[in-house]
Amino acid sequence: MLASIGSPPACAPEAGQFVAPTAPESGAPWMKLLTDHVLYWRARKAWSQQYYNDVFQFIAKRAPDLQQPLRIVEVGTAFGVSALLARLTHGGLANYLLQRLPRAQLYAVDPFLSGYDPSDRHAHAMAAIASKLGLNKTELSVAWASGMAYDLTARHGSCRYRLFHMRSQDAAPFLGAAFPKASVDVAFIDGLHTYEGTKADAEAYWPLVAPGGVLIFNDYGGPRSFAGMTFPGVRRAVDEFAASRAKNVSVGAPGKPPGLSNAFIAKTRRETAAGPNADSYCDAGLGCHF
Ligand SMILES: C[S@@+](CC[C@H](N)C(=O)[O-])C[C@H]1O[C@@H](n2cnc3c(N)ncnc32)[C@H](O)[C@@H]1O
């Protein structure tokens, strides 16, 4: 299956970017992790049914020209797994969006460190996979990054998919330096789901968002909890952040973009890091000019 994916096109890596292994190494831990677990779970038990299409529809509504080279950041990329969901074949959110937005560039940020939050089931699932494969925490992290980077780079090209194998707080300065000022169209925040983690991510990634762009927060909560998990710290941090910026929080629902448990905060079209009404303009969709 992997052999048919082909080699990714050359694209100069950004500072801090994790570079994918160039070829499958037979027997490498990352290849086994990729084939036995990441692709397996991504194909069968993804979060995709819950919100992926709603996130896509949300982006498509704000940027109707799907050929736009949108810049998307995903904080916490995992692969999309829940043991409770039905069988699907969409893969994780990164793969889903890259498939449907043909010119989007996706910057994924994740340290892949198991046990990062005892109240998050995915953290336990990662630990179980490490134990099954006989990998320690660091080995699992490197293997996971290698597998994800190899697979998604090979599928979508090294210019469209870039992995920052680090914690969100460490990645923000790299991304800020790599991008033109305030030029991220969508930042999907789905990493550390504690109050402190969400608050820090909101603060760190808001300045990167373009006028007319959005921060989307997963697991904000909504009409019902997701897979029995609730993250009250996410809601508290998002509400406080919005209040401090005099922003509205808008919440999705099943079939209501950006989807179940997702909340978003939009940056006004004339707002820049320098403050509102600075000299910038945005045309229809998300494209902004300075
Ligand atoms: C719920 S999963 C992400 C699911 C993915 N966004 C999707 O929709 O398919 C949460 C991810 O956050 C990652 N994570 C935990 N702490 C993090 C941090 N400090 N920075 C970035 N990612 C983090 C975990 O490794 C895990 O992969």
TrEMBL record:
Domain of life: Eukaryota
Listed Gene3D superfamilies: Vaccinia Virus protein VP39 (3.40.50.150)
Pfam families reported for this sequence: Methyltransf_24 (PF13578)
Matches recorded under InterPro entries: SAM-dependent_MTases_sf
Protein name, per record: Class I SAM-dependent methyltransferase
Organism: Emiliania huxleyi (strain CCMP1516)
